[in-house]
Amino acid sequence: MRPEIPPEELAKIEASWQEFLDNPPDDLAMVARNPVLRDHMREPMLAGWWLENRLLELGATKEECESLCFAHGQHCFGRDPWVMAQFVLDGYKAGNPEKPGPELAERICRERMKIVEDV
Question: What pTM, to 2 d.p., does this model score?
């Protein structure tokens, strides 16, 4: 669920989304052009920009932000992107930042499979 975001910050995040739609990077152009993908990716991307802003406020480097936002994207698989943004931010604050990559992807998939098995 989206946290309370001051209107001026929300306007900047929404402007980032519009800029993405207007000028997508080559590797994400299909997301911007495809309405199904675009609708599906909107909240994770907004949450990622919110997370990046929080990390920068805490003194994270650009490289740390990129890494943690990538980890956030991995965590969004099947979960609320805003909850996952807070989860990644809390880990950073606690000195236990997430490391994106295959190991995280495998852990996330195993956790999701366990949830399905337990149902």
Answer: 0.86
